[in-house]
TrEMBL record:
InterPro entries: BUG, Bug_dom1. This is Tripartite tricarboxylate transporter substrate binding protein. It comes from the Bacteria. Belongs to the UPF0065 (bug) family. It holds the Pfam family TctC. SUPFAM superfamilies: Periplasmic binding protein-like II.
Length: 315
């Protein structure tokens, strides 16, 4: 599959009138179990769209297979704009990570908008012999094979970010994948891991309590309201974040896709909504369909190389 296809195959503008959209209840497919920041944002946005549209917007959870079950449901839904879905970084990663997806990201799905970036972080035990990224890299190079790190799962954005960091900084460490963040936290707190790569908001309470040490955040710039350094301050140009966005069946009329994007952007640009999304450790984006398509294209290329070089396989 050509990686440039997701952007190239985006629907072109048409004269379809979407001013009366939606004409019935809307279903938002979330490919995760209820709970967590992704679900919170889905419910916040769906409630505001429901108010704006005067139609029910129902959140329907379809977890499993690294989000592939939920995304497949969206891909095969009627292309009338009444069913669209939320995706995370697995959307761009799965074509390289999972060789037998039941859908084709190019032929079956169209980007609507990138809602937000989820901020990620690197934390260590309080007694770790390093406190900055530069010290971590120096320690790892002097002690090859000694460092271990945990993530919420193999193929997760945190795992891929750690692998990218290893390659760009020129050091090695052992990966310990877990089924979620909580088990990784337990192992770190118990002294059986040296590091954890995880969403910023997930580790922040431990950092504030002094039970974990913040090494760096992985975004392009420091998280507003916090003084934690970024990886980019040591390795210029490095940044990793987890995307959150909306997609629709490929044949959905472009005017309807544009309508959903424009109304979602209005919701996200509301000051109170922006504050509530940022409370979930996310940075609001609200991109256009073309911008989201281009971003996904870039992420597909970027992570396909990391996955191939590291030999990463889906759990």
């Amino acid at each position: 599959m050509a990686l440039s296809g997701f952007a190239a195959a985006a629907p072109s503008a048409t004269a379809v009138d979407a001013s009366g959209y939606p004409k019935g209840p809307v279903k938002l497919i979330v490919p995760f179990a209820p709970g967590g920041p992704t679900d919170t944002v889905a419910r916040l946005v769906s409630l505001k769209l429901q108010e704006m549209w005067g139609q029910p917007v129902l959140v329907d959870y379809k977890p499993g297979a690294g989000t592939a079950i939920g995304v497949d449901f969206v891909a095969k839904a009627p292309a009338d704009g009444l069913t669209f879905g939320m995706v995370n970084s697995s959307f761009a990663v799965n074509p390289s990570l999972r060789r037998s997806l039941p859908y084709d990201i190019v032929k079956d799905l169209a980007g609507i908008t990138q809602i937000a970036n989820l901020q990620l972080a690197i934390v260590a035990r309080p007694d770790a012999p390093f406190g900055t990224l530069a010290e971590l890299v120096a320690y790892a190079k002097k002690n090859p094979g000694r460092l271990s790190y945990g993530t919420p799962g193999a193929g997760s954005t945190t795992h891929l970010g750690a692998e990218l960091l290893k390659r760009e900084a020129g050091f090695d460490m052992l990966h310990a994948p877990f089924k979620g963040s909580a088990p990784a936290h337990t192992e770190l707190l118990g002294g059986r891991l040296d590091l954890v790569f995880d969403p910023f908001l997930s580790v922040l309470p431990y950092v504030k309590a002094g039970r974990m040490k913040m090494i760096a955040t992985l975004g392009e710039k420091r998280i507003p309201g916090y003084g934690y350094p970024t990886v980019a301050e040591t390795l210029p140009g490095f940044h990793v974040s987890a995307l959150l966005g909306f997609v629709a069946p490929r044949a959905t009329p472009p005017a309807v896709v544009t309508k959903i994007q424009a109304d979602t952007a209005k919701v996200l640009h509301d000051a109170e909504m922006r504050r509530r999304v940022e409370e979930q450790g996310m940075e609001v984006v609200a991109s256009t369909p073309a911008q989201f398509d281009a971003f996904v294209q870039g992420e597909m290329k970027r992570w396909s190389r990391v996955i191939a070089e590291a030999g990463i396989q889906a759990e």
